[in-house]
Design brief:
GPCR_Rhodpsn_7TM; transmembrane helix; G-protein coupled receptor; single chain; elongated; Rhopdopsin 7-helix transmembrane proteins; 2 domains; 2 strands; 346 residues; cell membrane; mainly alpha
Length: 346
Amino acid sequence: MVGTNPPTMNSSVNITDKETCSPEAQHMSLAVILCVAYLLGLLLNTFSLWVFTRHLLQWNSGAVLQFNLALSDAIIAPLTPLMAVYFALDSNWIFGNFACQLKIAVLSIHFNGSVIFLMLISIHRYVSVVHFNRSSQMKRKSFVKKLCAVIWFVLIVTGSIYAMLLPVTNEENHRQCLTIHQGILTDAYFIINFVNLFFSCILPISITLFCYGRLARSVSRINVNSFQGQTVKIKSMRMIGICLVIFVLCFLPLNVVRTIGVIMKKYYPKKCRILLHLQTAYYVCYVLAGVNCCLDPLIYFFGSSNFIKAFKNFLGAVGIWRSVENKIESETVSQMGNRNNTFTVS
C-alpha cells in the first residue's frame, strides 16, 4: 500500500499542474440552449427590423438607435450553428481560420454594439425626459444617424483587428478558436480583455447607471394624476428595469468571468482544473449574454409609442389585432351582463 502512494500523488500533480490544459468537452445542453436563445433572438429582432422598415412611418432619434440595436443583435444568429457544432465536437474548431476570424469579428461587433447602443438609448431617454425642455444633439435624428454610422465603422475596424490578432491554434490535438487554452495568445487575450472591460463594460454601465439614476429621480417627481405624466412614468420605469436587467444578467457576468480567466491563464497557467471550470463558466455566461437578443425587443415595445402603433397596425393588417379587440370587447360585454344578472337576482 505504501508503494502505491507516490504514483497517485504524481498523477494528481500532473492533472492539476501540467504545462498545458487539454480542452474539455462541454455538456450538450449548452449547445442546445445557445441555439434556442439565438434562434428566438433572430426571430424577434428580424420581426422588429421588419416593423421598423415597413410599418414605422415616422422615425425619431430614439427609433434610429433602437433600429441599430436590433441590427447589432440580429447579425450574430447566422454564426450560432458553427458555435453549437464547436461545443458538440469537444471544443474542436473544424471550419478553418477564416470562419474563426469571421466569428471573432462578428462576436465583437455584436456584443460591443449591443452595449454601446443600449448606452446611447439610456442617454437619449435621460435627455428626453430629464431635459425635455432643452435642445440636445441626441434629439436630432440627423446627428444620431451620423453617430450610428461612426459607431458601426469603429465596431467593424475593432472587430477586424481582434480577428487578426486571434487566429486558430493547435492545442493538444484540438484546433482552438477563441478559447482560454490558446497559450501563445495569452498576452493578446489579456490586453484585449481589459480594453473591452473598460470600453464595453465599466464605462457604458457607469454612464447608464448615472442616466437612469437621474431619470428615476426625475420620474419620481412626475405628476401621476395626469394621463400623460402616468404614461411617461410607467414607460420610463420599464425602460430602466429592462436595461438594468440586460446589463446585470447578460453582460456583467461575461466580463467578470472572462477577466478572471485571462488573469488565471497569464499568472497561474498550470492550474488546469480551475481553468477548465472557468472555461465552462465562461460558456454559461456566453449563453446568458445571448439572452440579451431576446430581451432587447422589449425596449422597442415599452420605449417607443410609434413602434407600438406600428405593431398594432401590422396585427390589424393581418386581422390578428381586430380579433383580439373583438375578443376583449366580447369578454367585457359578457362580464357586464353577468354583473347585471347578479344585480337582478339580488
